[in-house]
Amino acid sequence: MPYFSLKSSNIPDGFVSYQHFSGGKGFFGRTTGELVKISDASSAVEREHATLEVPGESISHSAQVRIGSPSLPLHVFRVLRDEHLRLKMFEYNPPLAPPSGLGSVPETQARKELREDVTFVVVPGHADPSGLSFKSLSFPELFIRHRNFHLWVEVVNDDLSRHDATFFVQPALAPPAPVSVK
């Protein structure tokens, strides 16, 4: 599973990250998507929060991906419909499929909506085709973008929003240590 960081196309040293805030519904209830500036002086925690993963997927054009964090297992960015389409880290643990020939788990409307809310389609960057943009599966006319250092899913319709919605894959700022089994 590759680890990576996503650098903003228009904020020097700006990386997609998540931040924890106290209050709300517990520790994970207030884990918001952010754009943070990372420098040589940044802490190990800041670098860790800007290290992302795409569980079981690769980042390539047209791929459908869920963007998570190795430091928050089973959590991925989700579009929050009731918070003006803000992105937050959210626990996503879909049911396991039964073995072949033993039927299937029916997908309820709520499960389908959740699956779509955590899934994005990778497309060429709006401001630079060598970068990437991420189209919401739930709202195909909307893309992940940063605005005021927060992550949202919004329309991309002018020069500023095109740059805000374009990111470049970089080596992970804090790749997890390999796990060894003895």
How does this structure look, described?
It contains 3 helices and 13 strands. A hairpin with a 2-residue loop joins strand 11 (143-147) and strand 12 (150-154). It has one domain (3-94, 110-171): Trefoil (Acidic Fibroblast Growth Factor, subunit A) (Trefoil). It has 182 residues and is mainly beta. Helices cover 12% and strands 36% of the residues. The strands form 5 sheets. It has a 3-stranded antiparallel beta sheet, with no helix packed on it. It has a 3-stranded antiparallel beta sheet with strand order 5-9-10, with no helix packed on it.
Question: For the record, what CATH class applies?
Answer: Mainly Beta
Q: Which regions are unreliable across 5 or more consecutive residues at pLDDT < 50? A: 22-29
Q: pLDDT average, as an integer?
A: 84
- The percentage of residues in β strands lies in 35-45%
Helices, by number, come to: 3
CATH topology: Trefoil (Acidic Fibroblast Growth Factor, subunit A)
Q: How helix-rich are the residues, as a percent range?
A: 10-25%
Structural class: mainly beta
Task: Report the biggest beta sheet as strand number plus sense, adding barrel if it closes.
Answer: 3 strands, antiparallel
Spatial strand sequence of the major β-sheet: 4-1-13
How many separate domains make up the residues? 1
Q: Note the gap between the termini.
A: 21 Å
Order of helices and strands: EEEHEEEEEHEEEEHE
Question: In terms of quaternary structure, what is this?
Answer: single chain
- The radius of gyration computed from the alpha-carbon positions, rounded to a whole number of angstroms, is 17 Å
| Beta strand count | 13
Shape: globular
Proper CATH architecture:
Trefoil
